[in-house]
Design brief:
- GO terms for molecular function: hydrolase activity, acting on ester bonds.
- Keywords: Signal.
- Belongs to the 'GDSL' lipolytic enzyme family.
- This protein has about 350 residues and is α/β, with parallel strands linked by helices.
- It has a single domain, classed as SGNH hydrolase (Rossmann fold, 3-Layer(aba) Sandwich).
- It has a 5-stranded parallel β-sheet, sandwiched between helices. A two-stranded parallel sheet has the order 6-7.
- α2 packs across α12, α4 packs across α5 and α7 packs parallel to α9.
- The longest helix has 24 residues.
- It binds 2-acetamido-2-deoxy-beta-D-glucopyranose (2 copies).
- The site of one 2-acetamido-2-deoxy-beta-D-glucopyranose (NAG) has 5 residues, from α12.
- The site of one 2-acetamido-2-deoxy-beta-D-glucopyranose has 5 residues, from α12.
Length: about 350
């Protein structure tokens, strides 16, 4: 009972997990002039601070290793992969949040995050957390393109939009908040049907961005969902172990994303989509954390490390670990800053292996 109450509350603050990101502009002939991120908490750099939602990370211990120790809304101890991608491309060291009124359109011209912690590909997933749906995020991007044209002129805005890197990191919440843990959708869809539904939503989003002028899109696959500390904690059959069934769900979903990438590269003129395999990378890190300089890959840094995320992380600071760099996860679902930096490397490195144009 306690566990289920706790879990509800944990998930009320959880959201989306891992990864996502954009394109290896470093290897493109023309360096990317901007990075745009869409998705969930893995790339929300603070948008949820400005909407009514419980999915917020703007209090300690979040942000404790961020510049100035500020809790910006990022669900980690420091920066996210979207920030590191922007940094690696020589743009801003941290990606601004679209809804933050502190930024003018001129600040946002080299990149912005439209993401919202708790968002899923499925609108219902986003609604569970009162997060912004992916459609709303794309509406904001459309609005942004208009503002950019007014601020920079049509030609300059077009250049930015067509050469930018677009990072999508979304989908974990659909399984964690919605299908696998709380089977909101489980009554209506079989697993293959739900996966097909989600992939169709991803396709619609990429097509919308392409229609607005985006070309280089990095679709970050799901992480090994079953190895998130929270999933280990609630694994009733083998407590403490990864939930292999949930890992297989993530893997089969990722297989569908790979096929989507091939299909859209074929169908959309000039599109350069890349699938980013964070599953294999994170699985390797989780299996042998010491090879990557980590000490712990089974617990998060905050609290007991097994179940806390969101406000639960702020309750007992005495338990929070000393050095988050030793931990793969900062809370029971979100990576630490160091892990995000490694994921960003994978995003930046990933290039199209099959060019159709
Ligand atoms: C989500 O809602 C928007 C706006 O109502 C709609 O256009 C879109 O098709 C919906 N997405 C899915 C996956 O149902
Ligand atoms: C990305 O490439 C750099 C340079 O080759 C390498 O050091 C780094 O390990 C790569 N990152 C990943 C995650 O593959």
């Amino acid at each position: 009972m306690l566990i289920s109450t706790l879990l509800v509350s944990v998930l009320a603050h959880a959201y989306a997990i891992i990864p996502a990101n954009a394109f290896a502009a470093a290897r493109d002939k023309v360096p990317a002039p901007a990075v745009f991120a869409f998705g969930d908490s893995t790339v929300d750099t603070g948008n949820n601070n400005f909407i009514q939602t419980v999915a917020r990370g703007n209090y300690p211990p979040y942000g404790r290793d961020y510049a100035g120790g500020v809790a910006t809304g990022r669900f980690s101890n420091g920066r996210l992969s979207a920030d590191f991608v922007s940094d690696a491309l020589g743009l801003s060291p941290s990606l601004p949040a679209y809804l933050d009124p502190a930024h003018t359109i001129h600040h946002l011209a080299s990149g912005v995050s439209f993401a919202s912690a708790g968002a899923g590909l499925d609108n219902i997933t986003s609604q569970i957390m009162s997060a912004m749906t992916l459609s709303q995020q794309i509406d904001h991007f459309r609005e942004y393109t208009e503002k950019l044209k007014r601020a920079k002129g049509e030609a300059a805005a077009r250049h930015i939009i067509s050469h930018a890197l677009y990072v999508f990191s979304i989908g974990s919440s659909d399984f964690l908040q919605n299908y696998l843990v709380f089977p909101v959708r489980g009554y209506r869809f079989s697993l293959p049907e739900y996966q097909a539904y989600l992939v169709a939503a991803a396709e619609a989003a990429v097509r919308a961005v392409h229609k607005l002028g985006g070309r280089a899109v990095k679709l970050v696959g799901l992480p090994p969902l079953g190895c998130l500390p929270l999933e280990r904690a609630v694994n009733l059959r083998r407590p403490g172990d990864c939930n292999e069934m949930h890992n297989m769900v993530a893997m089969s979903f990722n297989g569908r994303l790979v096929r989507l990438v091939a299909k859209l590269n074929w169908e959309l003129a000039g599109a350069r989509l890349v699938y980013v395999d964070q599953y294999t990378l994170l699985s390797a890190i989780i299996a042998k954390p010491w090879e990557y300089g980590f000490e712990n890959s089974v617990r998060g840094c905050c609290g007991t490390g097994y179940v806390e995320t969101g406000v639960l992380c702020s309750l007992d600071s005495a338990l929070t670990c000393g050095n988050a760099d030793n931990y793969v996860f900062f809370d029971a679902v979100h990576p630490s800053e160091r892990t995000y930096k490694i994921i960003a490397g994978a995003i930046v490195n990933a290039t199209t292996s099959h060019l159709f144009h």
